[in-house]
Amino acid sequence: MRSLSIDLVHELITQSLAAWHVAGTVELTGDCTIVIDAKPKIRIEPAQAGSVFRWTITIAGRTRPAISLLAVLRQVRRALDPGYAACRVRVALLPVAPS
Amino acid sequence: MMATELIPVSVLTGFLGSGKTTILSHMLRQPEFSHTAVVINEFGEIALDHELIEKTEDSVIALTTGCLCCRVRSDLTKTLQDLLRRRDEGACTQFDRIVIETSGLADPAPILHALMADTALASRLVLGNVVTTVDAVAGELTLEREAISRKQVAVADRIVLSKLGLTGEVEASLHERLTALNPGAPTSRAVYGRIESDNLFCVALHDPKARVPDISSWLAEAPEHNHSAHDAEIKSFTVVRVEPIEAVALTLFLEALAEHCGADLLRLKGIVNVAENPQQPAVIHGVQHVFHAPAWLRHWPSDDHTSRMVLITRRVRREWVEVLLDAISAEVAEVSASNR
User: Fold this and answer.
1) ipTM given for this complex
2) What confidence tens digit (pLDDT) does each residue in B186-208 have?
3) Which residues in chain A touch residue B296, judged by CB atoms under 8 angstroms apart?
4) Interface contact flag, B294 A94, Cβ < 8 Å
5) Is residue B1 domain-resident?
6) Are B31 and B149 members of one domain?
7) pTM of the complete model
8) What is the total count of domains within chain B?
């Protein structure tokens, strides 16, 4: 299994923009920040140690936290894809043992 | 859980005039189909198809309130519940399978939703094969013109080429078109309703007679396919993972697919090695944004314990799906490790 690295997240965001057919370029800076050069401009950083959140996202100058990569993807797509309407259906948690 | 008493529900779909009723009528005359309940949907005010089916049992039901996919999903649920009640009360044949024949204009995906999303039905029924008929004479033109016919082919577990009594041979271009739309689905031939394959509606995973579930057949895995320009948006590919996947990661992965792909995820089916329960494979399948509750096989059918998920999609990039699963799995693993 691949370990969670900023490179993997960078790859995920790059592939996500391509998958969603939205314009923008994705760069990984030396201080482990992912910068999406698009309209609006977006920065994704690991949250500070001790935070209950895992990621910090800055969209058009406004910073908000995200608890998971799924939350990051949701915020990024909402910002970049005006036609995006998230499906509200929830997938029930997989039972870890047969019932 | 993969109890043998679960009754498989197969869906017979195909565009208008592609020979669904002829094939079904022929099949129901065979002894092995004597314990089959049939639900027929027609698009129109007067039902005719069920009159064409020679069946003395009262287990043939016609739904005439509209196209099954868009207007009568609740009717389908009620009909299936009623069928099960009658079976339980001994008021009809103790059927061991159900076949739903859709209207030729039906999008099969919402029908599969209805079968998978109703929790009461899910405890009694299990989705069987989706069989799609394609007219060997007019099929190519239909696929060219009708998007719904392409979708019917794309979600199929098996494809039946009909009307071979009229044409004899199938044009290579039609074969190529079908392969482009759904490279994993085996193709059978029907001549005047007679099908060369006698296991059209057999569902290897749920066949109580099968000692070992036929995973490969069910998954119908196929390498990523290069498509013709016509069908370039629809593609199928298999995501394979050797290491077990944590249950939470799998759930989040499916949720992300549902959230970001929606209607573009035409079909997903897979067998997954869940880290918390590696002895028994979990069987998952979904259509668009609806996923069936995972079922557990009693044991792995072979020494191959890799997770395999087959996706049939429209405009969904494989690269994104692969890195999505990797990233979610990695994050879940990191969180799990930090909580220990």
Assistant:
1) 0.93
2) 888 887 777 865 567 765 455 54
3) 98
4) yes
5) no
6) yes
7) 0.67
8) 2
